[in-house]
Amino acid sequence: xxxxxxxxxxxxxxxxxxxxxxxxxxxxxxxxxxxxxxxxxxxxxxxxxxxxxxxxxxxxxxxxxxxxxxxxxxxxxxxxxxxxxxxxxxxxx
Length: 93
Prior knowledge:
This protein is mostly helical. It has helices at residues 3-9, 12-25, 32-58, 60-68, 70-91.
């Protein structure tokens, strides 16, 4: 296995996202069966998503395309994160 898999599994941001989503969906009075079903679904959905991402990114043509466009990708992601941060700053006032 690659170290990237273990890095993402132990990523606290992913865990916090799942827990925060889980608490929004499950009501305090819900039974344990429903909570278990949601937990299993969310675990399988995350496993499937990260598996697809790993397979896609590890493909030779995808890796080559990402290396060629790395600067543009970084700028796009950076711009998107700055825009989201700006929206968050304006919305919290």
